[in-house]
Each structure stands twice: as C-alpha cells, then as structure tokens.
C-alpha cells in the first residue's frame, strides 16, 4: 500500500500547527493507521508534546547532510501505531547549510524515499517550523498534500494566500508538480465571537472543496496537554478538543482513503 505524506505548514506561529500535527497523528494511529510523525522544527515542540525526550543525533539533521538514514532516526512512542522522528536544535543549522547544497529543495524528498517505500507507514505527517524557510520548502517538495492550519482571525487570511502562492511556485518549477492542497483546518475557533464564524465562512467561500468540516475549538485543555507530554486523548479524552481531533482524524482517513494495517 502506498504511503501518503502530509506536511502541516504555515509561516505564522501560534496557529495550532504543532497541536494539529501531534493530535492528528495520534487520531490516525487510534484508527490503526500506521503513522510516522516527523518533527522538522528546531524548537522540537512536537517531540516534547508527544512525550519523547530530545536526543542528540536523532533528528533528520544528519540524513539531510548525507550522514545516516531516516530509518535509523525513527523512535517509538507510547502510542500504538505511532512512531516519531524527533527534532533537535541542530536542525536550525540545516536552514543555512541546505541552501549551499545541490538540489537543495529536494534533499528531504530523497531522505524520506526509503520510508515511503518500506511499507511500514500508511501516513507520514511532517510538522514544519513557523516560517517558509528552507526546511518548510523541503517539506512541501517532499509531500503529497499540504494541510494548512488557519487561526480563526482575519490576519490569518493574509498568510493563506502567501503559502498557496509558494505551492504554485513549487508546482510550476516542476519541483513537486504533484503537490496538492489537501485541506484547510480551522483552529482556535471561539464560539462566543462572530469573528470566528465570519472567518470560517470566508474560507469556505474561497476554498469550498478544501476546508475541513471539523473546526478545532479554542480550549485551555488543548493548550495544557503539551506541557505534560501528552496528546489531548491521553490528557482529557472527553474534552471538546479531543472530540474535534478525533473527528478530524476520521475526515482525513475518509478524504485520502487511508487504510488501516
């Protein structure tokens, strides 16, 4: 069965990108979809949020430099059907070093190829840094689908156009002509404000086929869970945030025809 690679990207920080990467990966694993979460952010927030300690030499920094393989970096998690490639601070150096290499936008694609063809994973989810730098552009070049997390506020809409233009550039330059916008995930939805509803409606008007039905609420429990090294399902499985990510996982499985092991 083929492996589907998703990259979760947004050049803006604080939009629920890492929260979505971690909890969507856990939601897919809960449906017995063999999933690999790749933390490509030097801050390693996804790594700590899933309860894994940062380990020197276990990120993709080495493989991106041609040292070692991605398969060697795969680390188990406490969640069945979910593995992780952690991040470490060294990845920050990759932002600079990649620009000096040949085919610099295609490095990650080559590094991930053995994982794609190993039949070990049905889904690979890449959590990018909050900037459209070298690592994020590499993840777009390596992905089948881009998932955009978009905060329910007007300033976020400006960033949507920017990232979509970058997708078009990668396609037109023949770097990843097959890359598609897999969907827009609306995050930090506040039921008490008209603004949240208006932003969702505006995105629906512009991208009616791409916006996910599931909207992620703004909740304290989702904010607290990473500090305990837990997904929302382990932290508070009955919370609105857990319900939302469970539903999002089902939508992703259905939309992309992911098959369980």
How are the SSEs ordered, and which strands pair?
Blueprint: E1 4-9, H1 17-30, E2 35-39, H2 45-49, H3 61-64, H4 70-73, E3 75-76, E4 82-85, H5 91-98, H6 107-117, E5 123-127, H7 134-142, E6 145-151, H8 154-172, E7 180-187, H9 194-206, H10 220-224, H11 232-235, H12 240-255
Parallel strand pairs: 1-5, 1-6, 2-4, 2-5, 6-7
Antiparallel strand pairs: 3-4
Helix pairs in contact: 1-12, 6-7
Describe the structure.
Strands 3-4-2-5-1-6-7 form a seven-stranded mixed sheet, with helices on both faces. Helix content is 43%, strand content 14%. The protein has twelve helices and seven strands. It has helices at 17-30, 45-49, 61-64, 70-73, 91-98, 107-117, 134-142, 154-172, 194-206, 220-224, 232-235, 240-255, and strands at 4-9, 35-39, 75-76, 82-85, 123-127, 145-151, 180-187. With 261 residues, the protein is an alpha/beta fold. Helix 8 (154-172) links the parallel strand 6 (145-151) and strand 7. It has a single domain (4-255), classed as Rossmann fold (3-Layer(aba) Sandwich), CATH 3.40.50. The relative contact order is 0.20.
Q: Tell me the domain tally.
A: 1
Quick one: overall form?
Answer: globular
**How would a textbook summarize the main sheet?**
7 strands, mixed
Q: SSE order, as H and E?
A: EHEHHHEEHHEHEHEHHHH
Average pLDDT for all residues: 90
State the CATH architecture. 3-Layer(aba) Sandwich
Assigned CATH superfamily? P-loop containing nucleotide triphosphate hydrolases
Strand order of the largest sheet: 3-4-2-5-1-6-7
What is the name of the CATH class? Alpha Beta
Query: Total strand count, please?
Result: 7
Percent range of helical residues: 40-55%
Distance between the termini: 9 Å
Unreliable residue stretches:
none
Number of helices: 12
CATH names the topology as Rossmann fold
Gyration radius, in Å? 17 Å
Instruction: Give the percentage of residues in beta strands.
Output: 5-15%
Structural class: alpha/beta
